[in-house]
Amino acid sequence: MRTSIHFRARFKTGCLAVLCLVCSRAAHAKADTTSYIQTLDITTGKIDTVLITKKHFEAPNWHPDNYLILNSKGKIVTLDLSSKKLTELNTGSANQNNNDHGISPDKKWLAISHNDKSDPSTKPYKSAIYILPITGGQPRRITPEVPSFWHGWSPDGKTLAYCAERNGNFDIYTIGTEGGPEKRLTTTEGLDDGPDYSPDGKYIYFNSYRTGHMQIWRMLADGTQPEQLTFDENSNWFAHPSPDNKWIVYIAYTSDEKQSHLFGKNVKLRLMDLKTKVIRDITPVFFGGQGTINVPSWSPDSKKIAFVSYLVR
Q: What three-state secondary structure class fits 155?
C-alpha cells in the first residue's frame, strides 16, 4: 500500500523525451486510486482535506466564487468548497481533457487542453488548446498544431502560454486568444514546460531540463534573459506565482525523474519568496506527482493553494 499526504496528526479531514511526456500527460492512474483534494495555508501550514474520493481527480484551479475546477477521466468538473458538491462542466465536444486547464484573468473564460482525435496529425497524442465560457459551452480551438498543453494566461487576458512539441522537441510557445501564429520562446535542447505568467506580466516562470536536471527558471515575457531559480537535487516542476506576486509554489520530486513528471511518486510542495529567493518545504513528502499541481491553484487572496494527493492500494 502506498500512502498519501492525509496524515491524521496534521490534517483536518473535511522521441524518448516526447514519449515520456505524452505518457506523463495521460496520467495512467490505477483503478483503485483514491484522490485527496486539499488546501494548504502557506502561513500556518494547515492542510484541510476538502474531499476524499475513489475517483481520479487532477489539477485544481481556484475560482474566486469559492469553487475549484479539476479534470477527471477526460471531463472538467467543479467542486464547491462550501457544499463539497461536484458538478460536471459542459465542455461541448471537448470530452478528452487533460490536466492543463486554467481561468482567465477576468474569471469569465476557461482554457482547456483536449485530445482531439479527429486532428489529421500522425502524432500519438493530439492535445490542442481551446477556450470556452467559465460557465460551460462549446469550446473554440486556439492552437492550430498538436500537441499543445495550456499553462498560463497573460494578465491582460490577450495571450496564452503553453508547452508544445514541434519537430521532436518540447518548448514554450505563446499565442493570442483569438488564434493566429504561435510564437516560440525557448529553443534549447531538452524539455521546457509549465509556463505561467507573473501577475505583472513581466516574467514567465517555467521548468527546464536544459542543464540535464529539471529545475525552475524564469524569463522575460518575450522569452529573453532566462534565469535559473533552483539548483538542488530534486526534480522541480510547475512554478506558479501567487496573485500578490510575492511567492512561487512548485512541486518537487524527491527522485531524479529526468524529463518525466509521472503519477505515483514521492513529492513535496515548496515555496520560494521572490524577494529573498529563500525556499522552504510547505508539505512533508507525499504520494503524488502528475495531477497534484500542474496548473495555477492559488486562492485569490494568495494565502492558500489547492492540490491533490493520492492513495493507491
A: coil
